[in-house]
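Hi everyone,

Forwarding the result from last night's run.
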Amino acid sequence: MDSLISAAARALAGGDPLRALNHVSLRDDAPALALRGIAMAQLGDLARARALLRRAARAFTTKETVARARCVVAEAEVALAARDLHASSKALDAARETLQRHGDTVNAAHARYLAIHRLLLIGRLDDAEQQLKALNTDVLPPALQATHQLAVAGIALRRLDTATARTALGHAGQVARRSGIAALINEVDKAARVLQAPAARLVTHDEDRPVRLDEVEALFASPTLVVDACRYSVHQASAVIELATRPVLFTLARTLAEAWPGDARRDTLIERAFRLRQVEESHRARLRVEIGRLRKALRPLARLHATRHGFKLEPLTGDVAVLARPVEDKHAPILAFLSDGEAWSSSALALALGTSQRTVQRALDALANAGKVEAIGQGRARRWVASPVLGFTTTLLLTAPLPGG
């Protein structure tokens, strides 16, 4: 490796892409193409970066397997930054095994962290955690140690373990500053601000206020019966009743919880659960059937009683509260993903949400008409970004696919 390539590599490792380009911008040999691709990725030109990395991979000979594997890993990182979540993981796994076999443990670990990040984005927390356990951080440089702690924090945040997340982010900040990479320090600081941002709204009979993640965690540990409108479930201490696949029952539960300690009128329940304005006797009969189903579903935690005007929710112990989304929008889960500041394709959003791409496209069109998102590019290159930037954390919306597709 000549001196210019070495100098460019050191500049990129230190987070200085412009200095790296000064060394290799006029060269077209394989190592220079690879370094130029990484530099363009750090500068945000992801399309150009991917093209350069592919040229570099083709330019390396078949004997230069380690260099080609490094190009594959770099292209996978660019694809992740572009939210191309459909990219095959087989090539990345093969590249990681090649690097590990040839003793390049640092880049092999980096490849594994890319796979973990993708698993986090699509909500596969158990798989991400399992892969984290296979890594030994003691032999890693500070930058990858910070990446490891960010992954630990990401899993903890999505599981509402704020103590673990706060500890991991504190360690991440220390090693990120030791690395001296400004972009990494900013990423850690951005992740740490999630703990202080409103995550949801707490709605009770006497208040409606924003709450942080640590307050949500404390709420779920309390004896309060919580109707969680972020993840479509009912909680009380360690007991959880999932209603994500039963939207009518969940709507009834939320309406009853919002009316607690009073009762909810029958007309209100019918209008919200069945989306009807004109109430007929057949609708009242249907309401009685659905209330019976809800009574059976909530039996471990609460009772439902008929009153003169409607129905009343009575928890076995504790009070009742509703945990609502910070923004009450039909397409709030999509806004939650877009609020990370990255440009997402509709196919990547569909994969992350566990729904069809056509459903996501219709939602994006509706959000665009409302001025809440913006499209960049055309055709298959089109990406979507949030506009304006949303001022709340999205952890509670990123833990499970959107119910009902």
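DSSP finds 18 helices and eleven strands in the chain.

Cheers,
N.
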